[in-house]
Amino acid sequence: MSLEALEVTENDEGYGFSVIADADQDLYLTFKSLFERIHRELLRQHLEHYDSGYRIKDGVVRGQITSEADDPSAPLLIIDGKPISWEELGRMIPEYMVFCFKLEIFGRSEEK
Length: 112
Fold this sequence. Notes:
With about 110 residues, the protein is of the alpha+beta class. The protein has helices spanning about 25-45, 85-90; strands at about 1-5, 15-20, 45-50, 55, 65, 75-80, 80-85. The chain has one domain. The protein has two helices and seven strands. The longest helix has 17 residues, at about 25-45.
């Protein structure tokens, strides 16, 4: 069984969460698991306002990959519930020059 929660916005760009459980698991427990996950994720902030844009807070960024509404082949990142283009993310990187990084992609139902 899978439960999903999607933030409804004007342009369909927002948070999205899901959990997977055994089909015979109590629906209330599955919903509770989804609710707790939403709560944890909403408390976690990865970006902070800086000058005229954002900067990466604490060297970690988590989000979701979706696509631009007008160009489905152009990826768009949803970080802290905000749509962030790859170019915008790239402008946040210079303070981390010469550092290493790890890009890990995983399913919406996984939590990392």
